[in-house]
Amino acid sequence: MKRTLLKTIALGSLLTCSAAVMADSSDYKLMVIEAQTAPQPLEQSFNSCALNVKSKNYAQAEAICTKAIALLKDADAPRFKVRQLTSFALSNRGVARLKANNETAGLADLYEAKSMSNSTMVSHNLTRAKEELSL
Known about the structure:
There is one protein chain. The chain is mainly α and 135 residues long. It has a single domain, classed as Serine Threonine Protein Phosphatase 5, Tetratricopeptide repeat (Alpha Horseshoe). The two termini are 26 Å apart. Helix content is 59%, strand content 10%.
């Protein structure tokens, strides 16, 4: 699988971080936070979620993504930036849920992620899910 790295955002304040994704255009895109650019618990949860999806540990990925979303609710950063990262975490959790054959919850996460951020990666995942599920 050809991998590409797309830098998507650079955040200021406490959440000075950037999100990146690796996947080819025909697969789901999982977002991660680059090393040492966010508070350790957030970075660890966010990236562990994506790693568990890639490793096909979908139940664990869902739980870890949920933890990342909860950490973001308490984040002391500009609202727009928190919304973007929350959107990315919801997208990652949606992919985990879809891969675990929990299509309803997965689609709900992707639609919520899309409503929070107009990210091309989130849009890609939603479009991919709808195609895969023939919606």
